[in-house]
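Can you make up a protein sequence with its backbone structure tokens?

===
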Amino acid sequence: MSPLSRRRLVSGLLASVAVAPALAETSSEDRRRFMARAFEMRAEAIRRGDQPFGAVVVKDGRVVGEGISAVLTRPDPTARGEIEAIRDAALRLGTRDLLGAELYSTFCPCPMCEAAAAWAGIQRMWYGAEINDGGVPRLGR
């Protein structure tokens, strides 16, 4: 990619973040419900003989994407729960633009998953049984 193309890409990303809609406050009860669904995805990953990770993408108060780890069973090193949930949400919604969405994951997302969330426009990450606020996804740590 040329330096000019790279600058245009970064400018476009920054512009899309600047005009992203404000994230509606999710109640703690809803956060518990969404995280419980992510842990159901984790249980399914374990049942299938894969790594113990699951995730969901939530937009406008509803689950729009679900993912379980398929790293071992597919095998695919990129088939992590978070990325599978992002892929599922994009397919269900018919768009790669997930601005305004939240990602709920059973474990702190790795750098690859966090970068995928950033590229998709996910606006907030939550992880773990304690529902830790992972903040806004970044392209690099």
